[in-house]
User: What shape does this take?
Amino acid sequence: MHELGDLYQEIILDHYKKPRNAGVIEQPTCGAVGDNPLCGDHLTVYLRLDDDVIKEIGFQGSGCAISTASASLMTAAVAGKSKTEAERLFHDFHEMVTGGPDAPADPRVLGKLAAFAGVRQFPARVKCASLSWHTLHAALAGAAQPVSTE
Assistant: This one.
């Protein structure tokens, strides 16, 4: 099990150092702003939807390693997915990081997102990991107000 933890740590560090889909996309159809005042994480998620499918997604902002890696992995996971599929991943990810020690963290369902399963042991870090997801959820819902993890 220790080797799995090392692999997960490697995935998070890779996405922190080289975030995927970082930056503003051209002609977004929706977006949202998210803020984690406790940690200082702040990001904006941009989406280009076509027939309820996420054709393009990007993010920009500043944050800790967990926040940045989560945003990077999230954008990679939901690109090309329908709004319904993205909302399902939001629910599954949220359940994993906020659930107890037996909460599902199945890599067959979550893919590389399962790397964040260990975050649930650190409640302050759950907010860092979930900020981009709550921001995505707000963007998909068309929310006009910024979201906060507080």
Q: What stands out?
A: DSSP finds five helices and four strands in the chain. The chain has a mean pLDDT of 92.
